[in-house]
């Protein structure tokens, strides 16, 4: 079997012309992964499309309704548009805040010398601690008489209702989410910053570039692959926001912090409408796919891959 | 480093100020201390919710909402920890989390390593197309799959079992993608040397590739198992 592996056959994943493949061996290696992929990803994906065409209760017989679920979602359900708007607002604000802050913090930590690694770990802690515990402690802190408002009261400021004021609740969610998620991007961008050769910055300095110029003209372009990766992953993640509204505000007050996934979850598991929930899931999938495709189509223009 | 030493006059030490602007010539610029003081302040604010979590865990239930900004209540309520341990089968719950995390990480690693090796080092028809489709599912929100998975687990009578938490989530593309990228950057000569010494492909994977990718795997596993923990407690 082993002799079937031609030496130097795949260098960096490129296939030299005329080399024989190793179909069977490859199939054996791929079998577990691809079988699981088919059963647990492809099959549910197709199944959810099928379910979305049915009126499908949790228990009881499903009934085929064609595109009714989609028609209802787009024309007969004002909550869907509210929820979609909330999710878009969250996604844009969260992504922009997260990336700008992560870029600033990782650049700062990069210059902090021996203290950098410690603070990088500190910022990463909320990423690895359970989201549920994080959300609960934030809820505790943001209640009307919580620690935040008590602290503000020391300065004579009458703190607002962070979680039950419809103007503020979404902002609180975004703040909590940025705190929760920023560490991941700090790590990725930090690794990107470490990958930039000091020689480049030195050359720019000799040519008379100031600190800001070096940052915008050298560091940022060199960092663009990491930034691109962070942007794509952060946007995808932000569309899936669920735990924060579920635990902090339950989507309220009113529908002001309800998001697609929370609405989907409720339709599926509280309102017993698995068909409608699947239609919502597909709407989410299509939106995320479109945005990701849009980003990748702009990749060549925005991202600098030449070293 | 060398360009820098060449470019600068010999009067200053290039190593200490490599990243600072040329204006900072003194050994410790005031900005240095401001930056560190700022780091401590920001770090404390950032870490505050965890301190508050700890403080709250030692307060009597009746005072949780009435203590305002004070870290301490009228007394330190250690019994909260006893209650947490006894009110729910805490030991059992922790063991469950460990079981799900460890089994999930182990399964994902084995599966991803095998797929990644095939995608990185082997030739077969439609390899790159298959990989692209596989990778494309990274974009897929798990929520799209949750309902069919729930129905599937229900039909298999696996709802409320650890299996339902471990197996369906072990086949994502992220691990395979990460290992494949790493393998592509790895010189193939290691494997060739092992092959010439008579090692089979499983042997190569176990004794050559695995030790080399271990560092990468650890990082990914630690984040993967922590998310597994979150996912299982969240659903």
Describe it for me?
The complex is a heterodimer of chains A (307) and B (235). Chain A has 307 residues and is mainly α. Chain A has a single domain (77-302), classed as MetI-like fold. Chain A contains 13 helices and two strands, in the order αββαααααααααααα. Chain A has helices spanning 23-51, 68-76, 78-110, 116-128, 131-142, 147-153, 169-194, 198-206, 211-239, 243-248, 260-269, 274-297, 299-302; strands at 54-55, 63-64. In chain A, strand 1 (54-55) and strand 2 (63-64) form a beta hairpin. The two termini of chain A are 39 Å apart. Chain B folds into two domains: 2-86, no CATH class; 89-234, MetI-like fold, CATH 1.10.3720. The chains are: A mainly alpha (307), B mainly alpha (235). At the A-B interface, helix 1, helix 4, helix 5, helix 6 and helix 8 of A face helix 1, helix 2, helix 4, helix 5 and helix 6 of B. Chain A: It is a multi-pass membrane protein.
Task: Indicate how many domains the architecture of chain B comprises.
Answer: 2
**Structural class of the helix and strand makeup of chain B?**
mainly alpha
Beta strand count of chain B: 0
- The number of distinct structural domains of chain A comes to 1
Shape of chain B: extended
Mean pLDDT of chain A, as a whole number?
84
Instruction: Bin the strand percentage of chain A.
Output: under 5%
Number of contiguous helices of chain B:
10
Q: Please report which band the strand proportion of chain B falls in: under 5%, 5-15%, 15-25%, 25-35%, 35-45% or over 45%.
A: under 5%
Q: Report helical residue fraction of chain A.
A: 55-70%
**What is the string of SSEs of chain B from the N terminus onward?**
HHHHHHHHHH
Question: Poorly predicted ranges of chain A (pLDDT <50, ≥5 residues)?
Answer: 1-19
The CATH architecture of the largest domain in chain B is Orthogonal Bundle
How do the strands of the widest beta sheet of chain A line up side by side? Answer: 1-2
Transmembrane segments (chain A): 34-59, 79-109, 121-141, 168-194, 215-239, 274-294
Subcellular location (chain A): Cell membrane
Membrane topology (chain A): Multi-pass membrane protein
Family (chain A): Belongs to the binding-protein-dependent transport system permease family.
């Amino acid at each position: 079997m082993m002799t079937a592996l031609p030496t130097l056959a795949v260098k960096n994943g490129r296939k030299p012309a005329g080399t024989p493949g190793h179909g069977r061996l490859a199939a054996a290696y791929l079998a577990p992964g691809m079988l699981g992929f088919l059963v647990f990803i492809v099959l549910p994906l197709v199944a959810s499309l099928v379910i979305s065409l049915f009126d499908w209760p949790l228990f009881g017989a499903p009934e085929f309704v064609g595109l009714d679920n989609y028609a209802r979602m787009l024309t007969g359900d004002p909550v869907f548009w509210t929820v979609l708007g909330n999710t878009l607002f969250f996604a844009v604000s969260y992504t922009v805040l997260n990336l700008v802050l992560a870029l600033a913090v990782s650049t700062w930590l990069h210059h902090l010398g021996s203290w950098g690694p410690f603070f990088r770990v500190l910022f990463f802690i909320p990423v690895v601690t359970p989201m549920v515990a994080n959300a609960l402690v934030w809820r505790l802190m943001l209640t009307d008489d919580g620690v935040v408002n008590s602290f503000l009261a020391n300065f004579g400021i009458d703190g607002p209702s962070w979680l039950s004021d419809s103007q503020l609740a979404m902002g609180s969610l975004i703040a909590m989410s940025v705190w929760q998620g920023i560490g991941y991007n700090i790590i990725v961008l930090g690794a990107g910053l470490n990958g930039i050769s000091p020689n480049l910055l030195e050359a720019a300095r000799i040519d008379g570039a100031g600190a800001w110029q070096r940052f915008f003209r050298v560091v940022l372009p060199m960092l663009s692959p990491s930034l691109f990766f962070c942007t794509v992953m952060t946007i995808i993640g932000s569309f899936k926001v669920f735990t924060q509204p579920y635990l902090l505000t339950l989507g309220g007050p009113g529908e002001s912090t309800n998001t697609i996934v929370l609405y989907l979850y409720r339709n599926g598991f509280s309102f017993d409408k698995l068909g409608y929930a699947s239609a919502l899931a597909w709407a989410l999938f299509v939106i995320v796919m479109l945005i990701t495709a849009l980003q990748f189509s702009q990749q060549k223009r925005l991202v600098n891959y030449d070293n | 480093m060398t360009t820098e030493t060449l470019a600068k006059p010999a009067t200053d030490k290039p190593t200490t100020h490599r990243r600072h602007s040329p204006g900072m010539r003194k050994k410790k610029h005031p900005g240095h201390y401001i930056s560190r003081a700022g780091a401590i302040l920001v770090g404390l604010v950032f870490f505050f919710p965890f301190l508050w979590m700890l403080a709250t865990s030692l307060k009597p239930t009746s005072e949780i909402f009435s203590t305002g900004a004070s870290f301490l209540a009228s007394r330190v309520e250690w019994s909260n920890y006893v209650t947490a341990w006894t009110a729910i089968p805490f030991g059992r719950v922790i063991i469950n989390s460990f079981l799900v995390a460890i089994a999930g990480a182990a399964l994902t690693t084995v599966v991803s390593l095998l797929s990644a090796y095939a995608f990185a080092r082997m030739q077969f028809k439609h390899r790159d197309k298959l990989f692209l489709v596989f990778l494309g599912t990274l974009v897929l929100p798990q929520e799209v799959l949750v309902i069919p998975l729930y129905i599937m687990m229900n039909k298999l009578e696996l709802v409320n079992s650890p299996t339902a938490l471990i197996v369906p989530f072990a086949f994502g593309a992220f691990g395979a993608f990460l290992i494949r990228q790493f393998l592509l950057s790895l010189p193939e000569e290691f494997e060739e040397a092992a092959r010439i010494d008579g090692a089979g492909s499983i042997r190569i994977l176990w004794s050559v590739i695995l030790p080399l990718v271990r560092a990468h795997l650890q990082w990914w596993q630690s984040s993967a198992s922590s998310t597994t923990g979150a996912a299982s407690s969240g659903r």
